[in-house]
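Batch queue: ligand-bound targets. Current item pairs a single chain with pyridoxal-5'-phosphate. No template structures supplied; prediction is de novo from sequence plus SMILES. Inputs echoed for audit trail.
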Amino acid sequence: MFASRTDWRLEPNRFAAALEEHRRLGKPLLDLTNSNPTTCGFSYPEERLFAALNNRGALRYEPESQGLRHAREAIANYYRGRPGFFGAESSVDAARIVITSGTSEAYNFVFRLLCDVGDEVLVPAPSYPLFEYLAGLADIHPVPYPLIYDRGWQIDIPGLLSALTRRSKAVMVVHPNNPTGSFIKAEEAHKLADICAGGDLAIIADEVFLDYVDGTEQPSTFASDSPVLTFTLSGLSKISLLPQMKLGWMIVSGPAALAEPAMQRLEVIGDTYLSPSTPGQLALAEMLAMRGTLQTEMRQRLRSNLGFLDALFPRGSSVERLKREGGWYAVLRVPAASSDEDLAIELLERCDVLVHPGHFFDFSRDGYLVVSLIMCEAEFQEGARRFHDFFRRA
Ligand SMILES: Cc1ncc(COP(=O)(O)O)c(C=O)c1O
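Prediction returned. Tokens below.
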């Protein structure tokens, strides 16, 4: 009856089963995996948000296949003045933007645009676990290429080259990556561009966390003039801490001979679904404009939780917090006495603390646990303390 693309293993794995049981028993839980900003005590400007959504224009249906012009101009404005990898400053044209219902839909549009059934896209490992599903639902194969850690994360270029096949259509980058928090460096972006230009491959750059940088230097964006066909994805879920608005987008850049036909085809794809709601799009500019104070609060939260973690695990501890440059997560290298999954289950059962086992993000071996840094300080600190005591006793 069902398509083989939906032949997922639906029975919960041991970790999910342990969590289900924990919840069923009503036990307390310190959730260090929580990355839903709407449940982390941020001070949303509620009145401003409601005012933005209260628009009489929402009574009319006048769809545009790429999304409403006014909203696209606001997105173009978000990129104004940012450094680009392939030019001094990025300048994004609203005509090269497609608004989607979240970044996930943008991925689907790009996969459908570029790939035939069975084609391949290269995805970083470790990275965002949803890629496997997004690719599978588009009938394509995600082929991992390694990121390696040596006092910081970097792309394993020989590893990437050896993952390429005749069926490769695009290289995906997450900039900064989830969960490693590593940005693509200029040198890597140029190498990638060379590889992609030489192999008729596109770049798909996920920049949802671009605004969350630990340092002071503004990172470069892929949404600039590029020597290769490039799709840069982002959205309000991280930029304005509003995942429930389901507003994402992609920017198409690259040589006109490729970017223009790509836009024409994307217009048809967009026109087929017209997914983003009118009320959301009408409010998009204002929701983007309110990111300033929210991001300031988020950065403060990230700094504070990261600082607490580093005080618990100073250099030389048996648990090492891996170097990161941004994003919302921290990766902890822990003594691999048992599998990541066993460790995460033990932490849950003995300490009421929930963390992600590394394999969830496709780490190549055991010994990695991942925590989110965005929850309220008090909850984070209690969870981190118990995590610390767990490894001290272990
Ligand atoms: C790398 C990455 N891309 C995209 C998303 C989700 O974006 P959206 O809510 O716009 O679909 C996430 C969410 O965690 C993410 O980690």
